[in-house]
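During the no-cost extension, the postdoctoral fellow (Dr. R.K.) reprocessed legacy sequence entries with the updated structure-token encoder. One reprocessed record is reproduced below for audit purposes.
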Amino acid sequence: MVPRQGQRHAYGGPPLMLAEFIAGLREDDDRPALPGVRRGELARLVRGYAVALAAEGLGAGDTVALAVRPGARSLATLLAAYHLGMRVAVVDPTAGPDVVRARLALAEPRLVLADSAAQAVAGWAAPLARRAHLALPSLNTIAPVRTIGRRLPRAAPSLRPAPGAFPTPYEGDGDAVVVFTSGTTSRPRAVVHTRASISAGMTAVRDLVRPVPGAPVLGGTFFVLLPSLAGGAPVAPPTRRNLRRLQPQAVYLTPPQVRAALAAGSRFDGARVYSGSAPVSASLLSAVRRAGAREAWGVYALTEVFPAAAVESAAKTAYSGSGDLVGELLPGVSGRVDDDGQLLLAGPTAAHRYLGSEPFSWVATGDIGRVSGRTVVLGGRAKDMILRRAENIYPGLYEPSLHVPGVELALLVGVPAEDGDERVVALVQTAEGRSEDDVRAALRGPLERMGSARPDSVVFGPVPVAGRSRKPDRAAASELAARLVTGAGRVARLSTGSGPVARLSTGGLGALRQRGRVTAHPGREGEVAAAPHATTDKTDPSTGRLLPPPQRGRVTAHPGREGEAAAAPHATTDKTDLP
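Re-encoded structure tokens follow.
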């Protein structure tokens, strides 16, 4: 069999964490692994799926597409493919059928592994699934399909764990996981992690999380679950129920999930809490500490480099400089800045390449930043730059200073001006129960210290979010800010003379919602106070998990570099990692 690009035969580096984990699985191990699944059961599933995949004629260098909800079977399938030296392309059912088809055409899978739910989304349940923003192309037009887990009527033939001896492990390096990020339908962009890089990344996560054997770790992605399992800890989804009953030693949540958990009155008593995949403010980490966490960490990670750096609450809170302190580079990770001020990263946790492209020497993050020793401070995304009066303004340098008490989210956005220039507008989302008058007063000092980057206007309204990790949507925020500045809301003056302050009117937001341009961000007051509040969030009555806010119309997704890694490999047709 001819290996694909990057499927190198020899590997002379340190032992690979995932290979060691698989080799250490024992079928008589009665310790818990996942909810309702013992380690011995996981070991039998991994062996059985490895035997079944080999019986399909698959081996090193072959690609399989994975569209299976997170759980024991998806985890076992991923580990079995890794054991055989195969490459797994992760399917995101929220990307849309045309995008998924284009992505998988680039990955060229020999087999599609899908559960019955994913196949239903691609078939008879498609109209219903579209209401939940899930859509897949007909999977059997891409490659032969096999059903993982329970087979329902009209599903493809099952791939069941098969009896037999564990196949000989593949011992070389090579492609392990393909994670699709940005790009277009005509030119998808896929990050390729090798067996070595994904193992190095998970080793770094394990060393950061420091799992203690026997105590639960809550997380919703394989990048968190596998390192914790390798450290001897049982793992479970980060639901509110699990937070209450399991007393976890560590929890990984995205920033929107943290805010939702705090807003619901969740406690993190004695736990180490980690948050990433979107910017993590000092005030959010402080709120987590007030909710009982022993430690609260912000993790800077990209799809291409996962993880890259981390900072604990105390250091982030004490930081008084400009920009966003994302912490110290993790062991082995190197950072430098190019001539344009963009942060570049390299190291063992870095991906090998973009699929179809040459290998990386340094990974371009797309973030403006600076590196002092091993400390990294970001100044925003390069593409987020605002040009006002021929001066470049990088929002990320100044947005942290806007997160004063009473502010839940705040963005600096550019709004086109009539003269072809841009106006700088601060869009501020206040926390529930906090008055805009108090927030205006608290903002006076930070605004005065922003110098030439001081916004022309400050407006109040919900910061639109988009994408799987519910990141702030700057394009939609700019549109909303433009409407507020030009009179969609009631305008008042800041007594500090910083420019007009617009108050969002109900009619203005309603009109934007009808146009499909804004996704509201309700019930996110937890960043300021870790106390129960009324919330408009909806939960799944069968699981108690938070459902994402509804999205209507056109949503502009910004799959930022740091965000997708936390959700991948995360093939899912539901949102099991939401609290």
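DSSP finds 17 helices and 31 strands in the chain. Confidence is low (pLDDT under 50) at residues 1-9, 489-579. The remaining legacy entries will be reprocessed before the final report is submitted.
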